[in-house]
Amino acid sequence: MSTIRGYLKKHTEALVKDVGIEPACELTGKSKATLGRYYSDHDEHADRFMPIDAVAALEEAASYQHVTAALAELKGISLSFDGTRRNADDKGGVNADVIALSQRFAILMAEYQQSIEDGVITVNEAKRLLRETTQLQQVLIDMKLHLEDEAT
User: Fold this and answer.
1) Predicted local confidence at residue 142, as pLDDT
2) How far apart are CA 61 and CA 63, in angstroms?
3) Cα dist. 148→80, 96, 141 in Å?
4) Under 8 Å CB-to-CB from 132, ≥6 apart: which residues?
5) Where are the alpha helices (DSSP H) in 20-122?
6) Residues ≥6 apart with Cβ < 8 Å to 143
7) Using one digit for the tens of pLDDT, what is the confidence trace for 55-67?
8) pLDDT in tens, 111-148
């Protein structure tokens, strides 16, 4: 299976698992077996991918747009995602961003240290590291927006 296909299938699986298999079945109108085929790495399902309307429905319910982000990354595109969905617009400014950046980086380094202690980064450890790098990226995006606001 090509690297791109495998990458998309892994993100499709993450999307379904993020939403939950039962809710994913309800949202898409697809069976568990059908959803499983969309992210199966078996040769007989190599060319089978989730329809875009099903992806859109699941990403609306998910905590993160896994497939959309994967497609963007494959084309070298950066997306801005605000997963915090804060109730207030007050974000604290650049000083708060610097503190948040330091905290997030410390968390990432702690996760990394824990992950490499045995010399092997497992799938679950890689997922935790990915989650932390995504959070770190979000802090950088917030900081960039605050700096742009101050520059105008």
Assistant:
1) 85
2) 7
3) 15, 15, 11
4) 104, 107, 108, 111
5) 21-28, 32-39, 52-61, 66-74, 93-116
6) 94, 97, 98, 101
7) 999 999 988 888 9
8) 899 889 999 998 888 888 888 888 888 888 888 888 98
